[in-house]
Amino acid sequence: MGYMSMSVVAFLVFFASPVVLATDTDPIPENRAQIPQWFQNNVKPYSQRKGKLDPALDAAEASRLIITVRYTGGGNFKTINEAIKSIPTGNKNRVIIKLAPGVYNEKVTIDIARPFVTLLGQPGAETVLTYHGTAAKYGTVESATLIVWSDYFQAANLIIRNTAPMPKPGSQGQALAMRINGDKAAFYSCKFYGFQDTLCDDKGNHFFKDCYIEGTYDFIFGRGASLYLNTQLHAVGDGLRVITAQSRSSANEQNGYTFVHCKITGTGTGIYLGRSWMSHPKVIYAFTEMTSVVNPSGWRKNFNRGYDKTVFYGEYKCFGPGSHVAKRVPYTQDIDQNEVRPFISLGYIKGSTWLLPAPKY
Which Pfam families does this UniProt record tie to the protein (predicted)? Predict the structure, then answer.
């Protein structure tokens, strides 16, 4: 994907009691302080969910295997790739790969035949996956430091970085930190660093919580159905910068990105919330802090003016100096509390049958 070539209150839930039945329809509360209680009520651990999850996931969680990786030695393996290769194809058990803090200079791919993998870093310590792949060498989507094809993937407490330099326009310097193609994946307290095309959120239902994503142009792109909660979106550099290039290409596709209680930061005033790489992108920001770095028009103008009628760009109860809608492009959706509700619950990612909290280190 190049610069040009690819070119209420009525529904808020105030948890007065800890005894709340988890459903796909409980909306994320507007009050940020209530997120931990909402998460606790709606994403319960496996011990309280037996028999209520996807059958394959239920069976996998019942038989967990822990593998340790320590690059200095003393673990089961010294590299992440060695640990991945030790998992048999057709794996049916949850495999938790515990990573010791430090820097792992590896290009890692988890193939489709190895589902139920968790990459787990130590909270409060820096566990870094890093590589320098570029589109010029690997192709855009294959340049990622971490590529996940398998279903039921989890990652927690990791830094995933592509160290290739900021690309010049037209240089094939796109360099991904991660590509996620597996279905039913969750990311907790992970940080993604890159420039153009940092995160290829490409396919499947995904959940990001307490994460950090940094980039310049189209730094979250793809056709995933994803819910980002309490995540910082940070644009670096100057000039034209775009957060999302969501690639829904028809009205029938059930995918899109929702950002809830997120924060947009960076420098300058040239950051756009999204652009129409494909014809029907769907992106919603709710309860999100937008600093002055957000361009007043909000969304990048469509190069194909026919897309003015097919994009779905929504903003709901966002705040901060970059959130003012008076100068927004005319095709920004004016969504109300009823329209936003499906986008701010786990139902958007069908989460009640597969989403689990991160395991403890």
Answer: Pectinesterase
